[in-house]
From TrEMBL:
Keyword Plastid included in the entry's annotation: no
Pathway: Glycolipid biosynthesis; lipid IV(A) biosynthesis; lipid IV(A) from (3R)-3-hydroxytetradecanoyl-[acyl-carrier-protein] and UDP-N-acetyl-alpha-D-glucosamine: step 6/6
GO MF, any single term: lipid-A 4'-kinase activity
Role noted for this protein: Transfers the gamma-phosphate of ATP to the 4'-position of a tetraacyldisaccharide 1-phosphate intermediate (termed DS-1-P) to form tetraacyldisaccharide 1,4'-bis-phosphate (lipid IVA).
Binding of ATP, residues: 60-67
Reaction catalysis annotation: a lipid A disaccharide + ATP = a lipid IVA + ADP + H(+)
Gene field: lpxK
SUPFAM superfamilies for this protein: P-loop containing nucleoside triphosphate hydrolases
Enzyme Commission numbers on file: 2.7.1.130
Organism, scientific name: Stutzerimonas frequens
Family: Belongs to the LpxK family.
Keyword Ion transport attributed: no
Lineage: Bacteria, Pseudomonadati, Pseudomonadota, Gammaproteobacteria, Pseudomonadales
Enzyme class: transferase
Origin: domain of life: Bacteria
Protein name, entry field: Tetraacyldisaccharide 4'-kinase
Length: 334
């Protein structure tokens, strides 16, 4: 187990040694608090786009299902006739220049796995740049858009926003409730009182704290051919190799178990790069990975490898609330 994995386990399961990190946590809180105060006291320091900006982010380190929700938001807005664009940091990306317009045929090394996945699934205009305000400007220079979604960026206060949506893993919650490095929080829990909506991934119902949404498996997709297979492709009890390089790999393994398969888990670091040799496991069994991992493996994947395609399903109350927000932000298009 890597150091990062041990630290995450300590954040969510507890460890007395975390007390030693209290001075660093205090320093971290002061820095993020000062950054937030500057934004609130002088909002003119942030770039205000001429179209509404919706930030989809989290206050915890690790996966919360952000990308599937962004895919849902894109498709939902497109069904309403809206022209949607996306900006992203492009974690781990090394593009030839910045900002960088992501195309479906680009290698993941140029743009990052999540931005590439979003473009390949939706065809949406997407720009990567750690400076998200610069990414928005560049995107608007190239495309006439009605709305921009910021993939992550809740703490990127150089970009003004009209809505903030925060995702939380319903099973893991906020861990020990402490900020980095003593806990998994990017900002103190009180920050949740200031956002527009909180969504709990895996919650069974809405609550006073936020809306429920879930990830529903819909198909298997073969990497080499793009062919969609039904979930009945493998019978109950099928043993298979399960590959996940995401923030919370266990959620993926648990999902495979709900489909009544018997996954042999192979957890990798979030945003991991892969080679064919790394993924040659014994015994020879079907291999299923996440869609985020698949965008980096298509070039060398042999026939038979597949990824599990999932679909975000937010609660009816959230859909109604979000439509109301769209009508408020874009009255001429409602």
């Amino acid at each position: 187990m890597s150091f990062a994995e041990r630290l995450q386990r300590a954040w969510y399961q507890g460890h007395p040694a975390l007390r030693l990190l209290a001075p660093l946590e205090l320093l971290y809180r002061r820095v993020v608090g000062a950054r937030r105060r500057r934004f609130l006291e002088d909002p003119n320091t942030a770039y205000r786009a001429p179209v509404p900006v919706v930030v989809v982010g989290n206050i915890t380190v690790g996966g919360t299902g952000k990308t599937p929700l962004i895919l849902w938001l894109i498709e939902h807005c497109q069904r309403r006739g809206l022209r949607v664009g996306v900006v992203s940091r492009g974690y781990g990306a090394k593009p030839p220049e910045l900002p960088w317009r992501v195309r479906a045929g680009h290698p993941a090394q140029y743009c990052g796995d999540e931005p590439l996945l979003i473009v390949q699934r939706t065809g949406v205009p997407l720009m990567v740049d750690p400076d998200r305000a610069r990414a928005v400007r560049a995107l608007l220079e190239q495309e006439p858009l009605d709305l921009i979604l910021s993939d992550d960026g809740l703490q990127h206060y150089r970009l003004a926003r009209d809505l903030e949506l925060v995702l939380i893993d319903a099973a893991r919650g906020l861990g020990n409730g402490r900020c980095l490095p003593a806990g998994p929080l990017r900002e103190p829990p009180v920050r949740l009182n200031e956002v527009d909506a909180v969504l709990f991934n895996g919650a069974t119902a809405d609550s006073d704290d936020g809306y429920a949404f879930n990830l529903r498996p819909v198909a298997l997709v073969e990497l080499s051919s793009g062919e969609c297979w039904p979930l009945s492709r493998y019978p109950a009890g099928q043993q298979l190799h399960a590959v996940a390089g995401i923030g919370n790999p266990q959620r993926f393994f648990d999902t495979l178990e709900t489909l009544h398969w018997r996954p042999i888990p192979h957890a990798f670091a979030d945003h991991a790069d892969y080679s064919l040799e790394q993924l040659k496991f014994s015994p020879e069994l079907p291999l299923v990975m996440t869609e985020k991992d698949a965008v980096k493996c298509r070039a060398f994947a042999p026939p038979g490898w597949s990824y599990l395609q999932v679909q975000a399903v937010p609660s009816t109350a959230f859909v109604t609330w979000f439509d109301d927000q769209l009508a408020r932000l874009l009255p001429d298009l409602s």
